[in-house]
Amino acid sequence: MNLNSTQNTRTKRLALGATALAIAAAGTFGAVSASAAGPAASTPGVGAHDLTTSTHLTVAAATKAAQAALDAAGKENQKVSVAVVDRNGNTLVTLRGDGAGPQSPESAERKAYTAVSWNAPTSELAKRLAQAPNLKDIPGTLFLAGGAPVQAKGAPVAGIGVAGAPSGDLDEKFARAGVAALDK
């Protein structure tokens, strides 16, 4: 075999390899594009019957609710923090009021998370501890009054938690003020 024949063979192998790589890449991108098209795509995968739809509070609505709760507390000279979490318990907004204690933002988030998780005010949930004391061991929860669920058609879409007032009843009153602001 001469030098030109060896170079031609290498060139052909390189061209074939590049072509194979291009075909593989095109197939991969095609699969990604097809699967990104959604459940109506004809590629195997998740069908429409395997999906659910959920409703979430917008950041604008969460901010409105949090500010309304903070304003309600301010009218009573209470220094609190307010948190709003979405249906999945992810924090959307946290407002730490002037002079609120350092523990209050985290407590507010945990109350909001607890309220949305059980779709009930945390004051009611705190009463359940007598029958089920292990509830308090669930990570991220706080079974003290001050959390209120936000509902759409009876289903939870968010939770509002308030912490820092001298009583949980006040905290919950302010959280309910945040919920009420969403009805306006």
TrEMBL record:
The lineage of its organism: Bacteria, Bacillati, Actinomycetota, Actinomycetes, Kitasatosporales. The keyword Signal applies. This is Heme-binding protein. The keyword rRNA-binding does not apply. Residues 1-36 form the signal peptide. InterPro entries: GlcG_carb_metab_protein, PduO/GlcC-like, PduO/GlcC-like_sf. Keywords: Signal. It comes from Streptomyces mauvecolor. It holds the Pfam family HbpS-like. Gene3D superfamilies: Haem-degrading domain.
